[in-house]
């Protein structure tokens, strides 16, 4: 399955190189940007963060480019991390396509070439931006909840944390 994604990963690397060279090449990452911002929008909508603005138009911000953005009206501690880190879900798209295309007898055809072109930008867009990470920090109470739960489970059910059979 991972071998199927090798051409998309190679193309993603090439897209990354050429977009650094000139802003005109942002067009190659448009599909990835759309999926990245849609992930923010969908998760924010599901968790009550109330998305109020959605944009995939590139714009210059200082010395860098902002390829897209989603603005939320109700970003709180309980929905900030899931909404901000939602682009990680974009990685499921190439994995699902690879699983689908490699289930049976597999030959690389014209459809796979088109899928390679569509999947490559997903590898460039699944990582949350620095702004996304900053917004996710608002959900620090989740860290306390997860660590407390893990310690509780470790204390009362240590067998859950045995990863190697002895």
Question: What spatial order of strands do you see in the largest sheet?
Answer: 1-4
Number of strands: 4
Number of helices: 7
Assembly status: single chain
Helix and strand run: HHEEEEHHHHH
List low-confidence stretches: none
Give the strand content.
5-15%
The secondary structure category is mainly alpha
Description:
With 166 residues, the protein is mostly helical. It has one domain. The protein has 7 helices and 4 strands, in the order ααββββααααα. The protein has a two-stranded antiparallel sheet with strand order 1-4. The protein has a two-stranded antiparallel sheet with strand order 2-3. Strand 2 (59-61) and strand 3 form a beta hairpin. Helix 1 crosses helix 5, helix 2 packs across helix 5 and helix 4 runs antiparallel to helix 5 (110-125). The protein starts with a helix and ends in a 10-residue tail after the last helix.
Describe the structure concisely.
This protein has 166 residues and is mostly helical.
What brief labels describe this structure?
166 residues, mainly alpha, two-stranded antiparallel sheet, 7 helices, 4 strands, 55% helix, flat
Q: Topology, please?
A:
Layout: H1 2-21, H2 30-46, E1 51-55, E2 59-61, E3 64-66, E4 69-72, H3 80-84, H4 92-101, H5 110-125, H6 130-136, H7 140-156
Antiparallel strand pairs: 1-4, 2-3
């Amino acid at each position: 399955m991972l071998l199927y994604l090798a051409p998309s990963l190679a193309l993603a690397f090439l897209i990354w190189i050429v977009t650094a060279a000139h802003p005109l090449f942002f067009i190659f990452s448009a599909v990835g940007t759309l999926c990245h911002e849609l992930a923010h929008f969908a998760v924010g909508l599901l968790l009550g963060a109330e998305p109020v603005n959605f944009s995939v138009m590139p714009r210059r911000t200082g010395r860098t480019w902002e390829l897209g953005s989603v603005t939320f009206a109700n970003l709180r501690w309980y929905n900030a991390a899931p909404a901000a880190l939602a682009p990680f879900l974009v990685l499921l798209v190439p994995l699902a396509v690879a699983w689908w295309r490699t289930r049976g007898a597999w030959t690389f055809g014209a459809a796979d070439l088109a899928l390679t072109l569509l999947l490559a930008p997903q590898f460039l867009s699944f990582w949350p931006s620095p702004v996304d990470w900053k917004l996710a920090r608002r959900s620090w109470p989740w860290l306390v909840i997860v660590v407390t739960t893990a310690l509780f489970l470790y204390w009362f059910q240590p067998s859950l944390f045995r990863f190697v059979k002895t």
